[in-house]
Amino acid sequence: MSAPSPTILKLPDQSTATLPKKNFINAEHGLLSWLLTGDHKRIAILYLISITFFFFIGGAFAGLIRLELLTPQGDLVSSDTYNKLFTMHGIIMVFLFLVPSVPATLGNFLIPMMIGARDLAFPKINLLSWYLYIAAGTLMLTAMALGGVDTGWTFTTPLSTHYLNTHVLTTAVAVFIAGFSSIFTGLNFIVTIHRMRCPGMTWFRMPLFVWAHYAASILMVLGTPVLAITLVLVALERVFGIGVFDPSKGGDPLLFQHLFWFYSHPAVYIMILPGMAVISEVVSTFSRKRVFGYTAVAFSSVAIALFGFFVWEHHMFIMGVSNYSALVFSLLTMLVAVPSAIKIFNWCFTLQQGSITFETPMLYAFGFMGLFTIGGLTGVFLGSLGMDIQLTETYFIVAHFHFVMVGGMLMAFLSGIHFWWPKMTGRMYPESLSKLAAVVTFIGFNLTFMPQFILGYLGMPRRYHAYPQEFQVLNVLSTAGATVLGVGYLLPVLYLAWSLKYGAIAGDNPWQATGLEWQTQSPPLTENFTEIPIMDHEAYDYEWLEHKTQHEVTHVG
Amino acid sequence: MDSAIANTQVDHDTAEHEHVVLPQHRHHFATEEQQREAGSFGMWLFLLTEIMFFGGMFFAYLLFRNWYYEAFVAASNTLNIGLRSTPARLTSSHGLLIARNRFSRS
């Protein structure tokens, strides 16, 4: 509209941009310079390569699951193999992709740059966390090669302790190690954000990306150790039969679920908060406006982290918990919807009267906002006690968390990768091809998971490899969608790899974004800044940026 | 290869940070005070994760102690290890702390 906006988007002319002679990629050479690096940006790249690898392994399992469900009979794989397929899909996607996806790649790369620091507080611990991740991944692949595991990603007792002869121990150790990898990442972020901010960078001048990562780091640091000890107890029970979870020895199998979900519910916020972090940056940049209600969005991240610790029992409503506690947990679950809604509404108000442009990151961000809203609201369905009895353990649950995790987090991850790709590599991705990928992903996603809501509502249970004839049409739709989705994920890998060599040179600040990370060269120097910056303006101050660029032009011209 | 890394490292340090004097000062901290604060803050945070880690176990212990109180009482009467090892551990960690404080003061 014709609103008086002082900052109509005018992207800089990139034809004259050149790659900087010295940057973190060419500062040192050889494989060892990568494997022994302390540079947060190089570690981020290492993480990016490894999580992409595991994403496609997890994705292959998802493909096999959907292929099996194409027909009502269990004809592609046996039911035991099917159990292993969905278990390995879940474990790899949750622990090796979703939890580290945005924090360990984009967060690692950007948090020091955004707060004006030269590196994270503990570079060696940062590298250690990558090695732990790789060790966990290797163990997981070993367990898979030796015959797999079929507990479901939840390791539910007594199934995992008494009834299975698959590689539960190896996998549990792998998840244990992966947990410490994410603890170290979280610890590093918290210390860095507290102690390493540049002069002038007060808490309320930090980009919202940093705020959301701070909240997610708190969850990592407080939640993950509980998962670790729970897995230790499962292992002790399996090996020595100590009986903590064994009713015949006076133990309580439900105790396992309390401990497990005490981590694993906050874990979904570990996964989604960094996604929200990306969306705040992208929405602000491509509507050329400060994020509406900055303080509210910042505190809503913290509120999600806080509430996230008090909702775990909603995973166990049908498992014999007391009615009164179920009532309380149902209410608390619905409370989480409040800060989530604050974020969504504030992003919408950021768009209002902004100068919106539709670059690829923005398309993914729009995808996030729609799909996450559907995923979040169906979560409220599941949080209400009556609905939960009908819907739990059906495909409705599967659709719900895939809307949040894949439709939300994965869209945000791709949005962020495209948004900061010029900063990370110094080159642009091909714009029209990537827009196509964003649209294909969105269509494929909806085709895959929308039918699953209906399937779940009609009563198709999750985790079965055969189903009644009447569900076939919807399952075929879902499998077709998964194929489209697969193409949508393969495309970015191809063109992003292509752009490393042939992409247009990006220049320092191709999006005219305000973050400190954009005020340096791309790709950045090893220590990010030639001199430590001084933050003398608020976050997302586009007038400051315009003033600065005008100033630059008069100097150069 | 290793020497190449070492060389570039030295180059960085001498080229960009002549002001750094103390050998234990890491390149990415602005001041030594910042480094010390970050270190101790990180350590406290790690201890917090340990509390959460063993908290799960203590929680399970608490629950079972509550459920089977008599059994715990009966079992504790057969234990005598705590009497000897607990004071030994407390004194040894106290000694370590004294040593550490003396060391950092000198």
In short:
Chain A is an all-alpha fold and 557 residues long.
Description:
The complex is a heterodimer of chains A (557) and B (106). Chain A contains 16 helices and no strands. Chain A has one domain: Cytochrome C Oxidase, Chain A. Chain A has 557 residues and is mainly α. The two termini of chain A are 33 Å apart. By secondary structure, chain B is mainly alpha-helical. Chain B has two domains: 1-67; 69-106. The longest helix of chain B has 36 residues, at 32-67. Chain B is elongated and about 60 Å long. Mean pLDDT of chain B is 77; it is low at 1-17.
Descriptive tags:
heterodimer, A: 557 residues, mainly alpha, Cytochrome C Oxidase, Chain A, B: mainly alpha, elongated, disordered N terminus
Task: Note poorly predicted spans of chain B.
Answer: 1-17
How would you state the average pLDDT of chain B, rounded? 77
Order of helices and strands of chain B: HHHH
User: What is the rounded Rg of chain A?
Assistant: 23 Å
Number of strands of chain B: 0
Estimate what percentage of residues of chain B fall within beta strands.
under 5%
Distance between the termini of chain A: 33 Å
